[in-house]
Amino acid sequence: MSTTTVDTVDSPAASGPVDAVPDGASAAGKAASRALTEIRRPVAGSVRVACVISALGALAGLAPFLGLVELADVLLADSVDRGRVITICLLIAGGLLARAMLMGSALTITHFADVRLQAILRRRMVERLGRVPLGWFSEQSSGRVRKAAMSDVHDLHQLVAHHSVEMTAAVVMPLGGLSYLLWLDWRLALLALATLPVYAVAYAWMMRGYADQMRRMDESNARISAAVAEFVHGIAVVKTFGQSRRAFAAYRQATDEFVRFFSGWVRPMLRTEALALMAISAPVIGLVTSAGSAWFVERGWVRVPEAVACVLVAMVLPTVIQPLGFGAQARRSASAAALRIHDLLRTPELPVAAAPASPDGHRVEFDDVRFSYDGSTDVLCGVGFACEPGTVTALVGPSGSGKSTLATLLPRFHDVTGGRVRIGGVDVRRIASAELYRLVGFVLQDVQLVYGTVADNVRLGRPDASAGEVERACAAARVHDRILALPRGYDSIVGQDAQLSGGEAQRVSIARALLADAPVLVLDEATAFADPESEAAIQDALSELARGRTVLVIAHRLSTIVGADQIVVLDRGRVAETGTHEHLVGAGGTYARLWAAHQGPDTEKTK
Q: 406 and 550: one domain?
């Protein structure tokens, strides 16, 4: 099922419990930091080289400050040395040019590194997700996978492409300037830092409990996204029954909770933040350093050019604070994203047999099968029966009896927690994945068509199939004429110029299974979305398909499996009855009751 994700407030915090204790917050922060280090490892060398170049660029950026001090010395002299003035101006221009070139080179390196890292991560995700059990995808939100592959990978961009280079320059340049002031006079260095303690104290007060608050904001954003996704996904149903206002209430409640939390957190900090920013504002710093430098000059501690150097260096310091703040924010956001990517890349893979075996034939056996989703409650309890080649076996039973779960164990959407599922006498867990998916085809009730042409969708199981084979498969699935009626026929793009109904999409998926020519088929009520006119034709196509093959049908409408060779009735995860339609109706058991309910009270019972 596809879900919709919504970007609300950009939350850099890692996901966690709403009321996490400090120890938990620390552990989550360390885990996120370790994940970020691991994720960035492929490009760490390139980033380090870029940081060295950035540091050199920052030092080159000090040339204008030194040059201006020397220029003040020259201009305040009794006679002005024009040649020295020109030389100093050229050095200032050269320093600015060198800084621009070095910083540009550093950012170019990190941007290429960022592109390379994104490609590496997305390839690793695709490779990992290609090896996880298929059932994992039905348990996980598609929004989570999409967020990791798109949003979370993108969230690393600022950290990789900008953060390290800009932070290096932001730290090296003021440190170089302060070192220069220390060389001139230690009192000048202290004066340049005079207003920073006020900012530091205010910032420390504002950051109290920050990690926990950011986690709460991340949780609030997640609830808003979930509410929107649920509303959008079910919009057709809620509008049909006139319940859009009620359905919207969940979203309104989530946003109201977020507003209350966010305003309660931020409002008390506004005055403190204003004081902190005022302390490092250019007018305040300029006023403090100018007054202090004038006093130093009056006392004879420093010369006028040195006082000018103090003011210039001090004015640079506010430009450092902003990158440091944004850098910390970018790192927290990237750390949370890296942790989610890291968790996705650690998704358990489908176990692969060390010595794969090949089946002998296509007989399917369920031998004392047990299965549990949570490891404690069994959904299936000792299910056992066999499906012979060339026959159709139908699984029926009340809702929640385990029909779909049992069928998905055959293509290894999940692995059994007890017993065995065999094909041709071999446990499916010992069959190589590629061979298993060549052996077992499935047509599920939830049809999935990918973006691409109709022909490409049919060819998913056999990419090398010819156009004639594709058309014959579609003809057998009774969808060939409908495809020819599309604007570009088989070259029509699904979702663009090929708008298919549910029944038509289902028939395309049946054609896909026909073309794949798998000897074992799992059909989850393949005609569920077919219109009455084409249902009989599809049943004929499936009957033709069953010849020489082993077919397992999950039946929701009993009328579609009356002619099945074997009907297995499940009830509460156990086999209640097995037999043909006539035998089971005559037995008067669970199937007979289901059939009577299906026929309705006014319809004569079919025998």
A: yes
